[in-house]
Structures are given as structure tokens and as C-alpha cells.
Design a protein that fits this description.
mainly alpha; Serine Threonine Protein Phosphatase 5, Tetratricopeptide repeat; elongated; signal; TPR-like_helical_dom_sf; TPR_rpt; Tetratricopeptide repeat protein; TPR repeat
């Protein structure tokens, strides 16, 4: 009798061991799946930030073909296209993202950004208009200001720039944009002030330094501003100031500034040389 009961017991033991083995395999498989998700997430982040933009486009194109319904991968593709400066394709990609389930207001902001990059100002305004006013981010108001500038809605533009400045810890870039807006309106003194603020916040912002010189030149102030600059930057700014003087009709002043630019530059300054030759032979 003992033998009859031992056989089912053996089978029971086998079943238990089999069940344990199966459970263990499932646990290991789940663990590997979790690791793969983590690895993929890290890889996506790398592709969106430090990878070569065109390599990132290739990666996300392949990934979206394999998983067309995953909005995170579609976002990755759209963002990579922007980084690669393939802006027309980026507009199409962001348009697809905002049509998907799970699309956010930030996705719409990114679509508007891509539309501005392709000079689709009316479409960008329409996209921004779909975002509720309660969604307040720096990027949203920066784009709103740019659209208002394009439409010459100066009061709106100033209001949006002011809000954008208050929503970021690094406002130098938007200060420079705001100053350029003032420059295009002919408000040169205010433009000069805003460019100065931008440089104070970010001394490496050469675009703001160049714009500052343009604003001073438009007021026939041809003295160099007291801002941090390298020798090469000083030569380039003297050249810009000379061109501003030409625009004002102050040709002799422009010649002097160009000679200073050529003498200041540590290498041969071909562009300034050509400008000076053109003035002297005119």
C-alpha cells in the first residue's frame, strides 16, 4: 500500500517542481522585460539630447514603424526632426502627434514651434489658439510673442515677452528677441536697453552684442559699448557698426570703423577689407 501512495506523491513533487520552474522562468522573463523598458527609455533620452540628430531620426523612424501607436516614439521622431533642422518633416510629425490619443498641450506648443520654423505664422497662431490660457509655460509665451511680432501686434507682443521673461530662469535669449522686436519698430533706445540686459545675463550671447551695436548705430552713436568681448568679437562688432554708419550715410565714419576692425582682428579680416575697398572705390 505504501508503494501505491508513493507514486502519486512523486508525481505531485514533479508537478510542484515544474510549477516552480515555470514560475521562475516567468519571473526572469518579466525582469528582463523591465530591464528592456528601462534601457529603451534611457536610449530614447540619449537620442533626443546628445545623439547625432540624423542618427536619432533614423532610430525613431525605425521604432515608430515597429510601434506606430506609441506616442512617446512619435514625439521622439518629431523632436529629432527639429534637431536635425528638417522642419517641414517636423511639422508633419508633430501634426501626427497632436492627433493621437494622449496628446498634450506641450505637444501643441511643439507643433507651433515647428510651424514658426517653416514660416507658417497663420498656422502657428491657429495651433496656439487651441491651447487654453491656463497652460502657462515659457515656451508657449515666447512663441505667442513671436507670432504677435509677425502680426505687428506690438502691445500683445510686449505683454507676452514680459510674461515669458518671468517664467524662465534664463531669460537672456528672450530679452534679445524682445530687443530685436523693438529694433524693428524703430524704438532704438529701448532695444539698446534690452540687448544690454541680455548681455548682462549671458555674456557669451554674441547675437545680442551685435544687435546692441546695430541699435547704437541706428542712433548715430558709433562708440563701442562697454561689454565683455574677445578681440575677434570686437573686430566683428566694429564691422557691424561700420555697416550701420553706411546705412546712416556717414561714409567717412564707416571707413574709420572698418580700418579699426581690420587692425583689431588677429587674422586677415577679408569681409571688412572688401567693405572698405567698396567704400573707397565708390
Amino acid at each position: 500500500m505504501r508503494h501505491f501512495f508513493s507514486i502519486p506523491a512523486v508525481f505531485a513533487g514533479v508537478f510542484v517542481l515544474s510549477a516552480c520552474a515555470e514560475s521562475g522562468e516567468q519571473t526572469v522573463e518579466r525582469a528582463f522585460q523591465d530591464v528592456n523598458v528601462i534601457d529603451e527609455s534611457n536610449l530614447n533620452d540619449v537620442m533626443l539630447t546628445v545623439a547625432d540628430p540624423n542618427e536619432a531620426v533614423t532610430y525613431f523612424t525605425r521604432s515608430t514603424k515597429a510601434n506606430p501607436d506609441r506616442i512617446d516614439l512619435q514625439r521622439g521622431l518629431a523632436g529629432s526632426l527639429v534637431r536635425a533642422k528638417r522642419n517641414t518633416e517636423a511639422v508633419a510629425a508633430w501634426t501626427k502627434v497632436v492627433s493621437m490619443t494622449g496628446a498634450t498641450n506641450e505637444d501643441r506648443v511643439q507643433l507651433a514651434d515647428a510651424q514658426i520654423r517653416t514660416n507658417e505664422w497663420a498656422q502657428a497662431k491657429s495651433t496656439l489658439d487651441t491651447i487654453p490660457p491656463t497652460y502657462e509655460t515659457f515656451q508657449r509665451y515666447r512663441l505667442e510673442a513671436m507670432v504677435a511680432d509677425a502680426n505687428k501686434q506690438w502691445k500683445k507682443s510686449d505683454s507676452f515677452y514680459e510674461i515669458a521673461v518671468g517664467l524662465t530662469t534664463a531669460p537672456a535669449g528672450v530679452m534679445n528677441n524682445w530687443g530685436y522686436s523693438k529694433l524693428t519698430r524703430g524704438d532704438y533706445a529701448e532695444a539698446e536697453r534690452l540687448f544690454g540686459e541680455a548681455i548682462r545675463l549671458d555674456q557669451s550671447l554674441f547675437t545680442a552684442k551685435n544687435n546692441l551695436v546695430l541699435a547704437r548705430g541706428a542712433q548715430r552713436n558709433y562708440s563701442m559699448p562697454v561689454v565683455p568681448m574677445t578681440q575677434v568679437e570686437r573686430a566683428q562688432l566694429l564691422h557691424t557698426l561700420a555697416l550701420a554708419a553706411v546705412k546712416q550715410g556717414d561714409t567717412e565714419t564707416a571707413k574709420g570703423l572698418l580700418r579699426d576692425a581690420i587692425a583689431t582682428h588677429p587674422q586677415h579680416f577679408e569681409e571688412a577689407v572688401r567693405s572698405l575697398q567698396a567704400l573707397e572705390t565708390a
